[in-house]
């Protein structure tokens, strides 16, 4: 029977779809795959524009129930909410009400096709929103006003924390990590006032570098994101000496069971 590598699946919207890119030489997905090399396959199922309702419709096509010889879903990272949190507009119909969003997240992580694999599940908060920048771009694109608001987006991130606590899964607080970085790199910012990116305060601060279009992550943001995720995957082998090759799906070539029968064909030093 063929060897099927267990999987790390990134299930989300454009924030995961964009994780494959490398605008400055860094790719979140490539970095994670390098971390998991020879042990796990990192599978990107980022779907730009999708909200949680769309995700539920697509889920059975993305996550089959376990089958003999098929890959096992070992880790599942779920990142939806940036589109659910859109405000209802004649020019945009991605909005999902907050209560339904929470119910959808619960349905995603408790879906039979997922729970049958018994994966480690991580719910990720949507990142902060730079509403100041979003408003500029949305008006230029023909929307009557901003499609997303900073305070509403923050409420959806808080909803992820609540669902994670209720379902006893781990939360990855991307909102907090990026906002704390932005605050630390914005000299003189008063954290007791309106948040960075909120038009009420009128200050973008370092969010300008972390969220270039107000919504999507810069390479620096993806690095911050990766630094949070990396320790969560492969803790049983991540700190072991590389020469132990703990958890490899196929053996190191010198100890492969077929080495003896093939060695006479290759000769010394052949790859």
From TrEMBL:
UniProt key word Hydrolase: yes
SUPFAM superfamilies on file: SGNH hydrolase (SSF52266)
GO molecular function: hydrolase activity
Keywords, ordered alphabetically: Hydrolase
InterPro entries (alphabetical): Iah1-like, SGNH_hydro, SGNH_hydro_sf
Pfam families per record: Lipase_GDSL_2 (PF13472)
Domain SGNH hydrolase-type esterase: 10-224
Stored PANTHER family: ISOAMYL ACETATE-HYDROLYZING ESTERASE 1, ISOAMYL ACETATE-HYDROLYZING ESTERASE 1 HOMOLOG
The protein's name in its UniProt record: SGNH hydrolase-type esterase domain-containing protein
Organism, scientific name: Echria macrotheca
């Amino acid at each position: 029977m063929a060897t099927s590598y267990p999987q790390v699946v990134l299930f989300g919207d454009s924030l995961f779809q964009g994780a494959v890119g490398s605008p400055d030489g860094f790719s979140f997905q490539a970095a994670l795959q390098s971390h998991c090399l020879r042990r796990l396959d990192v599978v990107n199922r980022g779907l730009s524009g999708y909200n949680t309702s769309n995700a539920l419709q697509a889920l059975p096509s993305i996550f089959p129930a376990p089958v003999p010889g098929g890959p096992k879903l070992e880790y599942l990272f779920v990142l939806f909410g940036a589109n659910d949190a859109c405000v209802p507009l004649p020019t945009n119909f991605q909005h999902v009400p907050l209560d339904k969003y929470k119910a959808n997240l619960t349905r995603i992580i408790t879906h039979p096709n997922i729970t049958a694999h018994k994966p480690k599940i991580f719910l990720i908060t949507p990142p902060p929103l730079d509403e100041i920048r979003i408003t500029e771009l949305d008006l230029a694109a023909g929307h009557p006003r901003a499609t997303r608001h900073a305070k509403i987006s923050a409420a959806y991130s808080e909803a992820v924390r609540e669902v994670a606590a209720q379902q006893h899964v781990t939360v990855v607080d991307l909102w907090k990590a990026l906002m704390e970085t932005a605050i630390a790199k914005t000299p003189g910012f008063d954290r007791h006032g309106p948040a960075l990116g909120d038009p009420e305060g009128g200050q973008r601060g370092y969010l300008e570098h972390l969220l270039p279009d107000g919504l999507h992550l810069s390479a620096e943001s993806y690095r911050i994101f990766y630094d949070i995720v990396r320790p969560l995957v492969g803790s049983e082998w991540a700190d072991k000496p590389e020469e132990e090759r703990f958890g490899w799906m196929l053996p190191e070539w010198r100890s492969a069971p077929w080495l003896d029968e093939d060695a006479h064909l290759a000769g010394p030093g052949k790859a």
